[in-house]
Amino acid sequence: MVRGFLFVPAVLAICGLLLAGLAVSIDRSDLFDPVFEALPFLNISTSGARSVLGTIAGAMMTVISLVYSLTLVVFTLAAGNIGPRLLETFTDNRVNQSTIGLLGATFLYSLFVLYVVGENEVPRLSVAIAIALATTSFFWVVYFVHDTARRVMVDNEIARTQRSLRAAIDRLLADEPKEEPDDRDAIPDGEGTAVPAHSSGYVTAVQAEALLHHAVEQDGFVQVVARPGHFIIAGTPIAILRQVGGDEKALAGAVHRSILLADARSADGDILFNVHLNVEIALRALSPGINDSYTAISAVDQLSASLAIILQRGAPSSLICDEEDKPRVWLELIEVKEIVGTALHPLRRAASGNVMVVLRLAQAIGRMALVCRGDHATILRTHLRLIATDANIAVRNRDDRAEVAHELYKAHRNLKRADGRR
């Protein structure tokens, strides 16, 4: 609800109307007359006040149209040069929302005061507030242009999306216990009862606490099949209920309410979606029509820093137990092998033959090997082998092959050191 160009601008605009009513009421109460008499430069005639308010209202409407036009131009550039799925992050930008809201609030404030003030009234406080709002709007528009100019720079956008990814990973891993090798053994045996989806769509969130509460209430075990980011077809299973001692239908209904579906993926709670954003930027940069290796290298560098967090700390446990330590819910949020493969497989395939990007991929794996746990070294070793295989086929120059081999050797040496790390 708070996303896009509706909620925040509308709230700020309504605040402008309320402020206008309050300012006019104070003006009519003559509460600040001593202040204005002590500050003669704030004195203004009725015609002057109406002229100032009319000028501010007209100027704000003009600037609002310019801000919307500039925003649409930025959307067009971002969709063509960076990636269309990043448009949601632009609409969620609080600077864009607050700029439109502040300009709208100033416009409605000036228009309302201009309408309600009588011919013989001198709204000195109202005019002073209007001037203050117009001044604030001017400096905020300057900041809006500055922020917009920074956001259309692809390196800044890559870094911003990866900061969001790292923050999401930190939130996910902060309070969750680490995954244990025998966690899956806690899933009860038997086929269980599948809970089919009522509609199709992307899983945007799974409410783990609600699932745990209802699983305890109905004395059952819920194995969630649908994970955030997965696309679900109506009629396919989203969860499996096992050993339910209570009302199975009630638990199935709770599962449907706890797994949220939408038409499009969202960065909130979907770790893989943030990975896809950077991969999309890199793939677009490596396409023959653009052929921008340095943008792809920037994406590889930022992704390696995000993946290193997971490789170092491991995935959170998928097993959720109740207060009596009895297994109740199985919910896989992320899998280390999947998230690393989601990032590295497309980049490796697209970069085949591009020596610059292949070298940076090998260097990125070498950097991640310095911090990864020993049980995750096999994952990186597999990707290193695939890079070597592709480079052996696509890179024909002898010196280039030697350089790639040297970087692969250094990464492999770092992985050997990681084998004993826990």
Automatic annotation (TrEMBL):
Protein name (record): DUF2254 domain-containing protein
Keyword tags: Membrane, Transmembrane, Transmembrane helix
Transmembrane feature ranges: 49-79, 100-118, 124-145
InterPro entries: DUF2254_membrane
Recorded superkingdom: Bacteria
Species for this entry: Stappia indica
